[in-house]
């Protein structure tokens, strides 16, 4: 496959507009007018991708949950850059892409603050028992209860990348004591203070009232929250997962909740999406379920397209786009997000 790097590309004056393939799920991204003026655009579904890729310079993965790129990879004869309309890239990366000189970027910055606000909302929902109030209201039942404070509670954020840092800032402002867990242990972090090694979760989770998962999915993080770790939670603690479903073992979580090893869980991501109707998680009163929406605040799709448009302008002028992903580790280069 004839792959040309960005460095090689800078040595040649761009005489023609690049060709961009947009991988979509049947719905085109909004606001593509400027991109269509800057580039030759081909729209393709998963089934059409292999026919659209030959000769293309750029792939815009709008259908960020797709795993179709690997199968279509032999057709990517001139590809130089893949941009993903999402924060995670675990569904995209495969060995041939990792070995290639094709740059990969993600949509860092679009989801950080919305996800941080969402996590704070989940913590407040648990502490103020808002989910129970809604259920009682549906039954027209008046039942007074006492609620919890969140100030002074201890939160462990597993994943110290940009989203994890935004969550840390939001929770710290609300009065929680925040600690991180990342790829390497360290002290004096500007956002977390102390960062524990993710490999040590078994030894530290029992110290926290809230454990928030926002790490990228890698071989090291897959299944990191299993029965052994869950057994060490405080009985009053809650688990929040806004990262990837496979960071935790769902069957182990169901058993741990049933056994009372922790008080509740809020899950925005799952091993299988949509969550199957037969999942026992649906019927557990101490579980909050949302359909992979924690970062999807109003205007988010337009923001994703605008970010790619900005990146494409840089590409058109021969510059490397920002938000480069370390293809071997699966997260933004320079960040310690696991």
Question: How are the elements arranged and paired?
Answer:
Layout: H1 6-10, E1 19-23, H2 33-38, E2 40-44, H3 49-52, E3 58-61, H4 69-72, E4 81-84, H5 95-99, E5 103-105, H6 112-127, H7 130-138, E6 154-158, H8 162-173, E7 177-182, E8 186-189, E9 193-197, H9 201-204, E10 210-213, H10 227-230, E11 238-241, H11 250-259, E12 264-267, E13 287-289, H12 300-316, E14 325-326, E15 331-332
Parallel strand pairs: 1-2, 1-3, 3-4, 4-5, 6-7, 6-10, 7-9, 10-11, 11-12, 12-13
Antiparallel strand pairs: 8-9, 14-15
Order of helices and strands: HEHEHEHEHEHHEHEEEHEHEHEEHEE
Number of helices: 12
Overall geometry: elongated
- Lateral strand order in the biggest sheet: 8-9-7-6-10-11-12-13
What percent of the residues sit in helical stretches (DSSP H or I)? 25-40%
Q: How many beta-strand runs?
A: 15
Average of per-residue pLDDT values: 93
Q: Radius of gyration from the CA trace?
A: 22 Å
The portion of residues forming beta strands comes to 15-25%
Tally of separate domains? 2
Distance between the termini: 32 Å
CATH superfamily of the largest domain: NAD(P)-binding Rossmann-like Domain
Could you list the spans in which at least 5 consecutive residues all have pLDDT below 50?
Answer: 333-338
Structural class: alpha/beta
Major sheet description? 8 strands, mixed
Could you name the CATH topology of the largest domain?
Answer: Rossmann fold
CATH architectural type of the largest domain: 3-Layer(aba) Sandwich
Oligomer: single chain
By CATH reckoning, the class of the largest domain would read Alpha Beta
Family: Belongs to the D-isomer specific 2-hydroxyacid dehydrogenase family.
Keywords: NAD, Oxidoreductase
Domain D-isomer specific 2-hydroxyacid dehydrogenase NAD-binding: 120-294
GO molecular function, one term: oxidoreductase activity, acting on the CH-OH group of donors, NAD or NADP as acceptor
């Amino acid at each position: 496959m004839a792959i040309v790097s960005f460095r090689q590309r800078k040595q040649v004056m761009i005489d023609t507009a690049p060709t961009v393939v947009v991988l979509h799920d049947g719905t085109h991204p909004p606001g593509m007018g400027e991109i269509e003026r800057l580039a030759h655009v081909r729209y393709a579904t998963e089934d059409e991708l292999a026919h659209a890729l030959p000769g293309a310079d750029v792939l815009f993965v709008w259908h960020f949950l797709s795993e179709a790129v690997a199968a279509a990879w032999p057709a990517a004869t001139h590809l130089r850059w893949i941009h993903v309309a999402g924060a995670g890239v675990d569904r995209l990366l495969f060995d041939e892409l990792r070995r290639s000189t094709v740059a990969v970027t993600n949509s860092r910055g679009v989801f950080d603050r919305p996800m941080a606000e969402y996590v704070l909302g989940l913590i407040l929902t648990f502490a103020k028992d808002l989910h129970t109030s809604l259920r009682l209201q549906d039954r027209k039942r008046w039942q007074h209860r006492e609620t919890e404070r969140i100030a002074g509670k201890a939160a462990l954020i597993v994943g110290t990348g940009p989203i994890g840092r935004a969550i840390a800032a939001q929770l710290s402002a609300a009065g929680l004591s925040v600690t991180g867990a990342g790829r390497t242990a360290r002290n004096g972090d500007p956002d977390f203070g102390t960062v524990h090694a993710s490999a040590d979760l078994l030894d530290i989770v029992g110290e926290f009232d809230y454990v928030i998962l926002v790490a990228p999915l890698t071989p090291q993080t897959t299944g990191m929250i299993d029965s052994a770790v869950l057994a060490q939670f405080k009985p009053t603690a809650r688990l929040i997962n806004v990262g990837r479903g496979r960071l935790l073992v769902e069957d182990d979580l169901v058993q741990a909740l049933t056994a009372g090893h922790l008080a509740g869980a809020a899950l925005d991501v799952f091993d299988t999406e949509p969550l199957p109707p037969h999942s026992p998680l649906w019927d557990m009163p101490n579980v909050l379920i949302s359909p992979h929406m924690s970062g999807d605040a109003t205007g988010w799709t337009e923001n994703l397209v605008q970010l790619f448009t900005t990146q494409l302008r840089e590409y058109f002028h021969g510059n490397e786009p920002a938000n480069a992903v370390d293809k071997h580790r699966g997260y933004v280069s320079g960040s310690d997000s696991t």
